[in-house]
Amino acid sequence: MNILLIGSGGREHALAWALSASPLLRKLYCAPGNPGIEAVAECVAIAAMDFERLIAFAQEKTIDFVVVGPETPLVAGLADRFEAVGIKALGPNGAAAVLEGSKGFVKDLCAANDIPTASYGNFTDRAAAKAFAGTLGQRAVIKADGLAAGKGVVVSDDPATTVSVIDRMLAHPGDRIVVEETLEGEEASFFVLSDGTNVLPLAGAQDHKRAFDGDEGPNTGGMGAYSPAPVLTQDVVEKTMRRIVRPTIAAMAARGTPYIGVLFAGLMIKDGEPKLIEYNCRFGDPECQVLMMRLKSDLLTALLAARDGQIAHLDLRWRDDAALTVVMAAKGYPGDYGKGSEIRGLDAASRLEGVQIFHAGTARKDGKLIANGGRVLDVTAIAPTVAEAQARAYAAVDMIDWPEGFCRRDIGWRVVGR
Ligand code: AMP
Ligand code: GLY
Question: Which ligand 2 atom sits closest to the C-alpha of 288?
Fold first, then answer.
């Protein structure tokens, strides 16, 4: 099969790496890709939001199946556009990607189906939002409705902040927000694959959202992750499937917008009870990198089965080993950072046992590898335990010569410290 993968981050490098090993594959293309992806796919310089050129390219190259990595093109309906011209595509169509595209929609779906989540209200009116926030006590979470790359959520610890955030997020006519209760517990990312009717659990992971060691500093897209996540016990997974994921897939099918693709449930777990924080309509980044290290079965077969309504009999195998990834970011991220600094030493670092280095934000210039984004490299390792995977990943990090970069030194602390 000819496959086109859409995206350019570390998640897409991990997907390309896994897809490139498929026995079903004839040719793998990636748009726009990155210098790491070039090792396993032919990269074409078409942006993920340039739908016209993507479709023309897919037709010219007789692409059989398109895999879309990021949420923005999915929410904008990229999968629908390919399907409309007779090219199979995964993930969800635009109508189903609303599970990530609208936080208010998800909260109403939870309420209608008794799915455990934080108590909430949807608001367009400031006074009503403030009055509801007042009933939640000192703390509240305020979320802008719509895609915001993680930046539209404020977890507020005091009423004065809550009021000013509500004023800011409801500044313009048409603005909508969700105000909700602050959940306590441990967060985890849980991934499933759905064909619209059936749901297959994939695996879980834990991300590290804050920029600095000890979970200090601003929120980021994710500074590192590991899988499996001990907090996702078999019992928690079973409850998550029964109370959260299956009712969601059933509700989406019942409203005529079946969800076909990878579904990422962001969970808060307290005393063995999972609650839904949010859904994403795609693999997590950097969670995907650790999942792909652990997946033994063929990824392409699984994704195609989801698109074709055939996952009921799919049996995916995972390595019992643990995988851990350390994100190396440009100094200044998630604020302003420089681009263009040279990165050296990747070849030697990637030769360490169990290590894979996924590129997230690199470019090639005059034969050199340079930093070209905020999150730049995902230094990933697999080993029998999280502690050993952590040791391997940091051994690789220490071989990389990039003075303009930084990383957290404590990825995996919840497990390694336990
Ligand atoms: P979201 O974009 O909804 O994932 O929110 C970003 C982050 O905000 C989550 O990963 C959580 O760390 C935090 N968060 C969101 N909603 C809540 C909540 N109701 N209670 C506690 N933390 C939350
Ligand atoms: N790592 C969290 C996300 O991909 O949204």
Answer: 4
Q: How far does the centroid of ligand 2 lie from the alpha carbon of residue 141, in Å?
A: 18
Locate 43 and state its tokens.
């990269």
Q: Which ligand ends up closest to the CA of 144?
A: 1
What does the pLDDT profile of the chain (418 residues) look like in tens digits? Answer: 999 999 999 999 999 999 999 999 999 999 999 999 999 999 999 999 999 999 999 999 999 999 999 999 999 999 999 999 999 999 999 999 999 999 999 999 999 999 999 999 999 999 999 999 999 999 999 999 876 655 589 999 999 999 999 999 999 998 999 999 999 999 999 999 999 999 999 999 999 999 999 999 988 999 999 999 999 999 999 999 999 999 999 999 999 999 999 999 999 999 999 999 999 999 999 999 999 999 999 999 999 999 999 999 899 999 999 999 999 999 999 999 999 999 999 999 999 999 999 999 999 999 999 999 999 999 999 999 999 999 999 999 999 999 999 999 999 999 997 5
Ligand with an atom nearest the CA of residue 268: 1
182 CB near ligand 1 (under 6 Å)? yes
Give me the CATH code for the 186-313 domain, please.
3.30.470.20
Point out the ligand nearest to the CA of residue 220: 2
Verdict on whether the full-model pTM lies above 0.90: yes
Atom of ligand 2 nearest to the CA of 284: 4
- Name the CATH topology of 322-413: Glycinamide Ribonucleotide Synthetase; Chain A, domain 4 (3.90.600)
DSSP 69: -
Report the distance separating Cα 367 and Cα 340, nearest Å: 13
**Euclidean distance between CA atoms 190 and 175, whole angstroms:** 30
H/E segment holding residue 56: helix 51-60
Asked if residues 267 and 189 have their Cβ atoms less than 8 Å apart, the reply is yes
153, 187, 279: residue to mutate for ligand 1 pocket, most atoms within 8 A of CB:
153
Nearest CA among 178, 181, 168 for reference residue 138: 181
CB-based contacts of 132, cutoff 8 Å, min separation 6: 121, 123, 179
Report the CATH number of the 2-91 domain.
3.40.50.20
Q: Residue count of the chain, please give it.
A: 418
Helices 299-307, 10-19: axis angle to 10 degrees equals: 100
**Per-domain boundaries in the chain:** 2-91, 186-313, 322-413
Q: Please tell me the residue having the least CA distance from ligand 1 atom 5.
A: 153
